[in-house]
User: Which sequence fits this backbone?
């Protein structure tokens, strides 16, 4: 079980052991299941773009089919999260902290909604935790489904293509970059964590002032 968990948090292991099918499942789970927030979505998309250029045999697809498949998985994940949010309603805000769930995750996402409204579904795609809870909260606050789908599709396409296409181009032009993949992953984790941490700290400071 522990080895399986480690594989699910390691982008290279996911792609090399499960191929495209596991890659699609992870993207779906991170955007559609509450427990999927720990999955490395950004890293996976970037690495899959690099691999399409440098080691295409691992995924057995080209970059355009990859973008299409990943976008569909991301859209479907958000739809699952949206309907889950509509079903459970306000109960999500009353849920106690658990090993894989913290109330602050909901608070951070709610702050993004207060700032960006429905655009959270687009902006939040690029931020860990936010992209997991954004569709759920969209269902909780009952954003109209047509409006939700507009932001959902737009966010998914921008997220997938915005990360995979530049990675594919870099991998095609500079295939030796794969030797530095570990450093790239660490850098991505740091960069994507910064805005989430800043938002959480602002929300915590506001609560202290109140």
Assistant:
């Amino acid at each position: 079980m522990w080895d399986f968990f480690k594989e699910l948090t390691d982008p290279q292991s996911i792609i090399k052991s499960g191929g495209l099918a596991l890659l699609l499942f992870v993207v779906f789970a991170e955007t559609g299941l509450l427990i999927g927030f720990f999955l490395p979505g950004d890293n996976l998309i970037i690495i899959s773009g690099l691999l399409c250029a440098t080691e295409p045999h691992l995924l057995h697809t080209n970059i355009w089919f990859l973008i299409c498949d990943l976008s569909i998985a991301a859209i479907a994940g958000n739809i699952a999260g949206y309907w889950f949010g509509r079903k459970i309603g306000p109960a999500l805000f009353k849920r106690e902290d658990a090993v894989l769930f913290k109330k602050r995750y909901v608070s951070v996402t709610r702050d993004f909604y207060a700032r960006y409204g429905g655009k959270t579904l687009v902006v939040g795609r690029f931020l860990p935790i936010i992209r997991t809870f954004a569709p759920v909260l969209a269902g909780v606050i009952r954003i109209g489904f047509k409006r939700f789908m507009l932001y959902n599709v737009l966010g998914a396409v921008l997220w997938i293509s915005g990360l995979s296409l530049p990675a594919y181009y870099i991998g095609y032009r500079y295939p030796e970059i794969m030797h530095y993949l570990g450093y790239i992953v660490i850098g991505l984790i740091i960069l994507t964590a910064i805005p989430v941490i800043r938002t959480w700290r602002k929300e915590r400071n506001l609560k202290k002032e109140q």
